[in-house]
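Can't attach files on this board, so I'm pasting raw text. These are the components:
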Amino acid sequence: MEFMDGKWKKSSTDWEQLLSDSLLNQEAVVEGAVHSIRNMGDVAFIILRKREGLFQTVLERDIPECSVHQLKEAMTVRVRGILKNEARAPHGRELRITDVEILSAPAEPLPLAVDKWKLNTSLEAKLNKRPIALRNIRERSKFRIQEALVRAFRDYLYENGFTEIHTPKLGARGAEGGANVFKLSYFHKPAVLAQSPQFYKQMMVGVFDRVFETGPVFRAEKHNTKRHLNEYTSLDLEMGYIDSVQEIMSMETGYLQYAMALLKNNYEKELSLLNIELPNTERIPEVRFEKAKELVSEKYNRPVRNPYDLEPEEEALIGRYFKEEYGSDFVFVTHYPSKKRPFYAMDDPADPRFTLSFDLLFRGLEVTTGGQRIHDYRQLIAKISDRGMEKEGMEQYLDAFKHGMPPHGGLGIGLERLTMQLLGEENVREVCLFPRDMNRLEP
Amino acid sequence: MEFMDGKWKKSSTDWEQLLSDSLLNQEAVVEGAVHSIRNMGDVAFIILRKREGLFQTVLERDIPECSVHQLKEAMTVRVRGILKNEARAPHGRELRITDVEILSAPAEPLPLAVDKWKLNTSLEAKLNKRPIALRNIRERSKFRIQEALVRAFRDYLYENGFTEIHTPKLGARGAEGGANVFKLSYFHKPAVLAQSPQFYKQMMVGVFDRVFETGPVFRAEKHNTKRHLNEYTSLDLEMGYIDSVQEIMSMETGYLQYAMALLKNNYEKELSLLNIELPNTERIPEVRFEKAKELVSEKYNRPVRNPYDLEPEEEALIGRYFKEEYGSDFVFVTHYPSKKRPFYAMDDPADPRFTLSFDLLFRGLEVTTGGQRIHDYRQLIAKISDRGMEKEGMEQYLDAFKHGMPPHGGLGIGLERLTMQLLGEENVREVCLFPRDMNRLEP
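---
Top answer:
Structure tokens for the assembled complex are below.
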């Protein structure tokens, strides 16, 4: 009988060893995709793309097993050779090839020059050829940065006593109601795709006190803008026994600090490839919704058109204001008007026209919406009734409150928006592996 | 201007402090839900439920602010008092109450006795009242164990150079084709929900070499069994430059070892509440599909009915065989017949009637399907054509191969099944927060 013991001895040399001194001037084996070939006549540089980065290999003359003319970009190969110091190579190392094994060969030449520093092509073309375009070193780095943002979210929340939950994306009714849900037939019953895990995460506060989820949400919104996706990844948390809404904002600030530290310590390569300077998250200013409107209206000579909502241009100006006045890339805008927040938002007892809620703007774009929720059953029922809403389909949600819920609140972060702002991208589609918008359902 | 700095000083005492000696015989503040009340006449024990566990508080006599008759189960409270050693209390500690603040009160008594050690009710009733039923200490512990399984998956794969990806759940076509997909209208275009991230994770191997995803998958299967869900969480990985299919099995073995260690070190409380003995994962036997059939047929006197597939009963017997013969709760069954595996499975060059694939059985239930995939474009096209399949809708997937893909393979683990087997549950719905089956779309 054969057994697996979880220990696998790779037949190739690992990245750390390639860069360490232990194998210098000795034999090593490197696997990778042929990223580019520079044939100088007497010598050819074969640059391999590995998950850790590019690695230079050198074919000094034709060898019996392989002529440079046999090699093609996008082949995957296993090369054997002698590891040498070479100051001009990436990472100061190269492999002088003694043997090449071709693992796979492409059937057609690449449709995009993925070995260029910047992919010189339109967003549309990149998205149409996504699996190829992402082979560009800078393109793929964006998603390593995105990984760090999700990873930090989870790790920070684990440390803070949160439990991770997985809530259903298929349900009988949307959390916020309304028209922006995708509908489908579920074994002949009407069903919808979850717009957010809102109801579920609240109900789970009654169980675990603190919960989070990182998962897809679906919005059938007919927006076709640079900052909207119809499917995106939402980083959601909900926490009970809060002292105030500010405790939620504090938790988000702590997360951002943790994320920047993780990026700085573990994603240095990608930050450097993309030339990213991390924003300061030590102190994030908070300003009331009304005050923010007033400040930018005064400073930038802009009349307030809609007193109940922030227009995208206004958000951008608030971002600019806090950058100019306080040097901050982030600002919490608090106390949004009650009529623009969902029924479950808690009104401010000091002035019920406003809610104990907030948005976080990052460089002038909303990346988070959060707030304290109503936890008292009677108050929740009264609010639903005030708004002329139906309780149908919310029975289970309301039951959780009927049987006691602690004071609580939470937030949802749009992962792609957060990534977009961090990377200074113009379009949210740049930082979604396979974006879904009104016109795009493929690849 | 006010600033958030990410440091929040809670007004209540944290769990570690409650159990440490630093506040012994001093004042502390405990928040929680009233889990149970034992009124002994001259003294009442108010057991609070916190995320970390149960904590005993004691009302020795009525105080001006609070009589025991005012307190109800499912209230949430903040109590102040003096912290005392008490050997008979959980964790050996209790709080002698001096003050009670009621944070919220239920509108109706609880419909289930959540304070009982075991919820004495049917699965159906538990699922109908899920947000309440999960307040039972043992019920909620199952999902902490589940958390550890996902967390370990990610952490182990981060350590092994995998990149986390988020692939779309809405698409134009299912990965495996077939009838088992949920269909919907996406802005007047036909769309389906992803049955698995299979195509996407394979395409991303061409970009990141090693990728993983933990997310929901949707199966419109008309199975109503104890081990099927129509929406579940899939732990998927895909890795390039593999030496053989066994390298994938080795990665899974490593993951399981890592998960058991994480459970042992960080989830002791939950293991003990549920009385779970962790399985040995040091050595996992592997056996060929045909051999496994033969072994159980001989040992248990059972004729082989279907030579191409394993019936559930046969899986159970294989599990039993390897437990009896090798003391193992796990067994890799390898080399499944080609005709029962998807088109992208790589046939064994030594005998193309079989594939370089595997299932992992855990206590007689399949919890993982994996294998090496075809990476050569021409071979993939030939297989599609042999099967009489349409290439329509797979253009992007095939493009990735046309432009070069490394040898690769991967696997998908059903999170709920893995949890179910670890916990010894009879029904997979027990370990899904909000299960979706043919008859259940709520809560």
